[in-house]
Amino acid sequence: MSDRNYLVLLGAPGAGKGTQAQLLQEKLGLPQVSTGEIFRYNLKNQTELGKLAQSYYDKGELVPDEVTIRMVEARLEQEDAAQGAILDGFPRNLVQAQALDEMTAGHGGVDVVPMIQLDDDVVTMRITGRRLCRSCDRVYHIMFNPPRGEKCDSCGGELYQRNDDKPETVQNRLYVYYKQTSPLIGYYFAKGLLVEVDGAGSIQEIQEQLLGRLAARNIEAAGRSVRV
Protein backbone atom coordinates (compact mmCIF):
# COMPACT_ATOMS: atom_id res chain seq x y z
CA MET A 1 0.00 0.00 0.00
CA SER A 2 1.45 3.36 -1.07
CA ASP A 3 1.51 6.10 1.57
CA ARG A 4 3.47 8.48 -0.67
CA ASN A 5 3.25 9.45 -4.34
CA TYR A 6 6.43 9.34 -6.42
CA LEU A 7 6.29 10.50 -10.03
CA VAL A 8 9.19 10.28 -12.49
CA LEU A 9 8.95 12.67 -15.47
CA LEU A 10 10.69 11.52 -18.66
CA GLY A 11 11.14 13.52 -21.84
CA ALA A 12 13.84 14.91 -24.09
CA PRO A 13 15.62 18.12 -23.11
CA GLY A 14 13.23 20.94 -23.98
CA ALA A 15 10.11 18.77 -23.82
CA GLY A 16 8.83 20.84 -20.91
CA LYS A 17 9.51 18.58 -17.95
CA GLY A 18 10.63 21.45 -15.71
CA THR A 19 7.62 23.63 -16.51
CA GLN A 20 5.18 20.76 -16.07
CA ALA A 21 6.86 19.69 -12.83
CA GLN A 22 6.42 23.22 -11.44
CA LEU A 23 2.71 23.15 -12.30
CA LEU A 24 2.27 19.67 -10.85
CA GLN A 25 4.03 20.80 -7.70
CA GLU A 26 1.35 23.44 -7.17
CA LYS A 27 -1.49 21.06 -8.06
CA LEU A 28 -0.36 18.02 -6.08
CA GLY A 29 1.34 19.64 -3.12
CA LEU A 30 4.47 17.57 -3.82
CA PRO A 31 7.95 19.08 -4.25
CA GLN A 32 9.69 19.10 -7.61
CA VAL A 33 12.98 17.28 -7.07
CA SER A 34 15.36 18.36 -9.82
CA THR A 35 18.88 16.98 -10.00
CA GLY A 36 20.14 20.30 -11.33
CA GLU A 37 18.71 22.13 -8.33
CA ILE A 38 20.08 19.50 -5.94
CA PHE A 39 23.59 19.78 -7.36
CA ARG A 40 23.54 23.58 -7.28
CA TYR A 41 22.36 23.54 -3.65
CA ASN A 42 25.07 21.13 -2.52
CA LEU A 43 27.81 22.93 -4.42
CA LYS A 44 26.72 26.39 -3.26
CA ASN A 45 26.42 25.32 0.37
CA GLN A 46 29.59 23.24 0.31
CA THR A 47 27.91 20.20 1.85
CA GLU A 48 29.97 17.05 2.15
CA LEU A 49 28.31 15.67 -0.95
CA GLY A 50 28.82 19.00 -2.70
CA LYS A 51 32.53 18.94 -1.92
CA LEU A 52 32.73 15.37 -3.16
CA ALA A 53 30.99 16.30 -6.42
CA GLN A 54 33.28 19.33 -6.80
CA SER A 55 36.33 17.09 -6.51
CA TYR A 56 35.20 15.23 -9.64
CA TYR A 57 34.38 18.46 -11.48
CA ASP A 58 37.84 19.79 -10.67
CA LYS A 59 39.40 16.73 -12.28
CA GLY A 60 37.15 17.02 -15.33
CA GLU A 61 35.40 13.77 -14.46
CA LEU A 62 31.73 12.81 -14.36
CA VAL A 63 30.13 12.65 -10.93
CA PRO A 64 29.57 8.94 -10.17
CA ASP A 65 26.05 7.57 -9.84
CA GLU A 66 26.70 6.84 -6.17
CA VAL A 67 27.14 10.54 -5.37
CA THR A 68 24.05 11.58 -7.34
CA ILE A 69 21.99 8.85 -5.68
CA ARG A 70 23.08 9.96 -2.21
CA MET A 71 22.13 13.57 -3.00
CA VAL A 72 18.67 12.55 -4.19
CA GLU A 73 18.16 10.25 -1.21
CA ALA A 74 19.03 13.09 1.19
CA ARG A 75 16.59 15.36 -0.66
CA LEU A 76 13.74 12.83 -0.43
CA GLU A 77 14.28 12.62 3.33
CA GLN A 78 13.47 16.32 3.79
CA GLU A 79 10.21 17.34 5.46
CA ASP A 80 8.53 18.75 2.35
CA ALA A 81 8.83 15.32 0.66
CA ALA A 82 6.92 13.54 3.44
CA GLN A 83 4.06 12.78 1.01
CA GLY A 84 6.25 12.01 -2.00
CA ALA A 85 7.92 13.94 -4.82
CA ILE A 86 7.97 14.75 -8.52
CA LEU A 87 11.35 13.64 -9.89
CA ASP A 88 12.71 15.71 -12.77
CA GLY A 89 16.05 14.59 -14.26
CA PHE A 90 16.40 11.53 -12.06
CA PRO A 91 16.85 8.68 -12.73
CA ARG A 92 19.01 9.01 -15.84
CA ASN A 93 20.05 5.36 -16.15
CA LEU A 94 19.15 1.91 -14.89
CA VAL A 95 21.52 2.06 -11.92
CA GLN A 96 19.76 5.20 -10.69
CA ALA A 97 16.31 3.75 -11.45
CA GLN A 98 17.05 0.67 -9.35
CA ALA A 99 18.40 2.88 -6.55
CA LEU A 100 15.18 4.93 -6.65
CA ASP A 101 13.17 1.72 -6.34
CA GLU A 102 15.12 0.88 -3.20
CA MET A 103 14.68 4.40 -1.75
CA THR A 104 10.92 4.36 -2.26
CA ALA A 105 10.15 0.67 -1.67
CA GLY A 106 9.02 1.26 1.92
CA HIS A 107 6.39 3.73 0.69
CA GLY A 108 4.95 1.80 -2.23
CA GLY A 109 7.60 2.64 -4.81
CA VAL A 110 7.27 4.78 -7.94
CA ASP A 111 3.61 5.25 -8.86
CA VAL A 112 3.71 6.46 -12.45
CA VAL A 113 6.21 7.58 -15.10
CA PRO A 114 4.76 10.13 -17.56
CA MET A 115 6.89 10.46 -20.72
CA ILE A 116 6.42 13.70 -22.65
CA GLN A 117 6.79 12.95 -26.39
CA LEU A 118 8.00 15.64 -28.79
CA ASP A 119 9.59 15.76 -32.28
CA ASP A 120 13.29 16.60 -32.38
CA ASP A 121 12.86 19.80 -34.41
CA VAL A 122 10.36 21.14 -31.88
CA VAL A 123 12.69 20.10 -29.05
CA THR A 124 15.50 22.12 -30.65
CA MET A 125 13.31 25.24 -30.90
CA ARG A 126 12.20 24.88 -27.29
CA ILE A 127 15.70 24.36 -25.93
CA THR A 128 17.25 27.37 -27.63
CA GLY A 129 14.43 29.64 -26.41
CA ARG A 130 14.64 28.58 -22.78
CA ARG A 131 15.75 30.97 -20.03
CA LEU A 132 16.31 30.23 -16.34
CA CYS A 133 16.31 32.40 -13.24
CA ARG A 134 19.75 32.48 -11.67
CA SER A 135 18.25 32.87 -8.17
CA CYS A 136 15.22 30.54 -7.94
CA ASP A 137 15.69 28.30 -11.02
CA ARG A 138 12.25 29.12 -12.44
CA VAL A 139 12.05 28.17 -16.13
CA TYR A 140 10.79 30.50 -18.88
CA HIS A 141 10.65 30.41 -22.69
CA ILE A 142 10.97 33.50 -24.85
CA MET A 143 8.10 32.31 -27.11
CA PHE A 144 5.84 30.02 -25.08
CA ASN A 145 6.21 31.16 -21.48
CA PRO A 146 7.96 34.54 -21.41
CA PRO A 147 8.48 36.57 -18.23
CA ARG A 148 6.54 39.80 -17.92
CA GLY A 149 9.77 41.81 -18.00
CA GLU A 150 13.51 41.29 -18.19
CA LYS A 151 13.72 39.76 -14.71
CA CYS A 152 12.17 36.71 -13.04
CA ASP A 153 8.47 37.22 -12.25
CA SER A 154 8.80 35.29 -8.96
CA CYS A 155 11.91 36.76 -7.35
CA GLY A 156 13.30 39.46 -9.65
CA GLY A 157 16.42 37.40 -10.34
CA GLU A 158 18.58 37.59 -13.44
CA LEU A 159 17.50 35.44 -16.38
CA TYR A 160 20.11 33.59 -18.43
CA GLN A 161 20.57 30.96 -21.14
CA ARG A 162 22.50 27.88 -20.11
CA ASN A 163 25.54 27.05 -22.22
CA ASP A 164 24.06 23.65 -23.01
CA ASP A 165 20.86 25.30 -24.30
CA LYS A 166 22.76 26.96 -27.14
CA PRO A 167 22.17 25.65 -30.69
CA GLU A 168 25.60 24.10 -31.12
CA THR A 169 25.11 21.75 -28.16
CA VAL A 170 21.51 20.65 -28.77
CA GLN A 171 22.20 17.71 -31.11
CA ASN A 172 24.69 16.18 -28.73
CA ARG A 173 22.24 16.57 -25.83
CA LEU A 174 19.58 14.73 -27.82
CA TYR A 175 22.03 11.93 -28.65
CA VAL A 176 22.93 11.53 -24.98
CA TYR A 177 19.26 11.61 -23.98
CA TYR A 178 18.26 8.83 -26.36
CA LYS A 179 21.27 6.72 -25.40
CA GLN A 180 20.53 7.03 -21.68
CA THR A 181 16.74 7.00 -21.70
CA SER A 182 15.96 4.08 -24.04
CA PRO A 183 16.73 1.50 -21.32
CA LEU A 184 14.64 3.48 -18.81
CA ILE A 185 11.65 3.47 -21.14
CA GLY A 186 11.84 -0.31 -21.38
CA TYR A 187 12.39 -0.64 -17.63
CA TYR A 188 9.31 1.36 -16.65
CA PHE A 189 7.19 -0.06 -19.49
CA ALA A 190 7.86 -3.55 -18.20
CA LYS A 191 6.71 -2.44 -14.74
CA GLY A 192 3.46 -1.05 -16.17
CA LEU A 193 4.30 2.48 -14.97
CA LEU A 194 5.00 4.28 -18.27
CA VAL A 195 2.30 6.59 -19.68
CA GLU A 196 2.77 8.70 -22.80
CA VAL A 197 1.85 12.39 -23.01
CA ASP A 198 1.76 14.40 -26.25
CA GLY A 199 4.13 17.32 -25.71
CA ALA A 200 3.16 19.26 -28.85
CA GLY A 201 0.31 21.26 -27.33
CA SER A 202 0.23 24.32 -25.11
CA ILE A 203 1.51 24.24 -21.55
CA GLN A 204 -2.06 24.03 -20.26
CA GLU A 205 -3.03 21.28 -22.71
CA ILE A 206 -0.04 19.19 -21.67
CA GLN A 207 -0.85 19.80 -18.01
CA GLU A 208 -4.44 18.62 -18.53
CA GLN A 209 -3.16 15.45 -20.19
CA LEU A 210 -0.81 14.83 -17.28
CA LEU A 211 -3.53 15.37 -14.71
CA GLY A 212 -5.78 12.98 -16.62
CA ARG A 213 -3.07 10.30 -16.59
CA LEU A 214 -2.53 10.82 -12.85
CA ALA A 215 -6.24 10.71 -12.06
CA ALA A 216 -6.43 7.38 -13.90
CA ARG A 217 -3.71 6.09 -11.56
CA ASN A 218 -5.49 7.44 -8.45
CA ILE A 219 -2.65 9.82 -7.63
CA GLU A 220 -3.81 12.08 -4.80
CA ALA A 221 -3.32 15.79 -4.32
CA ALA A 222 -2.97 16.97 -0.74
CA GLY A 223 -5.11 14.09 0.51
CA ARG A 224 -7.74 14.15 -2.25
CA SER A 225 -8.02 12.67 -5.74
CA VAL A 226 -6.67 14.77 -8.60
CA ARG A 227 -9.33 16.53 -10.65
CA VAL A 228 -8.62 17.97 -14.09
Give the biggest beta sheet.
5 strands, parallel
Percentage of residues in DSSP E strands: 15-25%
Low-confidence stretches: 222-228
Task: Report the CATH architecture.
Answer: 3-Layer(aba) Sandwich
Number of strands: 10
**SS class:** alpha/beta
Number of individual domains: 1
CATH topology: Rossmann fold
What does this protein structure show overall?
This protein is of the alpha/beta class. It has a single domain (5-225), classed as P-loop containing nucleotide triphosphate hydrolases (Rossmann fold, 3-Layer(aba) Sandwich). The chain contains 8 helices and 10 strands. The protein has helices at residues 17-28, 35-44, 48-58, 65-76, 94-104, 120-128, 167-190, 203-216, and strands at residues 5-11, 32-34, 84-88, 113-117, 130-133, 139-141, 159-160, 194-198, 220-221, 224-225. The strands form 3 sheets. Strands 2-3-1-4-8 form a 5-stranded parallel beta sheet, sandwiched between helices. Strand 9 and strand 10 (224-225) form a beta hairpin. Helix 2 (35-44) crosses helix 3, helix 4 packs parallel to helix 5 (94-104) and helix 6 packs across helix 7. The longest helix has 24 residues, at 167-190. The chain is globular. The model is unreliable at 222-228 (pLDDT under 50).
